[in-house]
Design goal:
The chain has about 90 residues and is mainly alpha-helical. Helices cover about 45% and strands about 5% of the residues.
C-alpha cells in the first residue's frame, strides 16, 4: 500500500509504497536455480536473437524442450515469462 510523505519524520518529497513478500512453498534447489541462471544468461546474451539460436550454441539440449513446452522456437528472450524459463530448467533437470 502507499504511504504519504507526512507518515515519516522528516517528511520526504516523494510518496512511498510498502511491499510484502511471501516465501514460496517450494523453493528452488540450488541446482535448479543454477540451471535457470545459465539458461537466462544464454537467452539474453544474444541481443534480439531468436531463443532457439541463443541456446543452441552453448547448450543445445536447452533448445529441445521449447516445442514440447509450447514455446515458439522463433520467440525472443524478452518474450518469455519467468515461469517459462523455470519450465525449461525443470524439463532439463529431469
Amino acid at each position: 500500500f502507499d504511504l504519504a510523505p507526512h507518515c515519516f519524520r522528516p517528511a520526504p518529497k516523494v510518496h512511498s509504497s510498502l511491499v510484502g513478500f511471501t516465501p514460496k512453498a517450494e523453493p528452488l534447489t540450488p541446482e535448479l536455480f543454477s540451471l535457470v541462471e545459465k539458461i537466462t544468461f544464454l537467452a539474453f546474451s544474444g541481443r534480439r536473437k531468436m531463443l532457439r539460436s541463443s541456446l543452441l550454441g552453448a547448450m543445445p539440449e536447452a533448445a529441445k524442450p521449447l516445442k514440447e513446452l509450447g514455446i515458439k522456437e522463433s520467440a525472443r528472450a524478452e518474450e518469455l515469462a519467468p515461469r517459462e524459463y523455470l519450465e525449461i530448467a525443470r524439463y532439463l533437470g529431469k
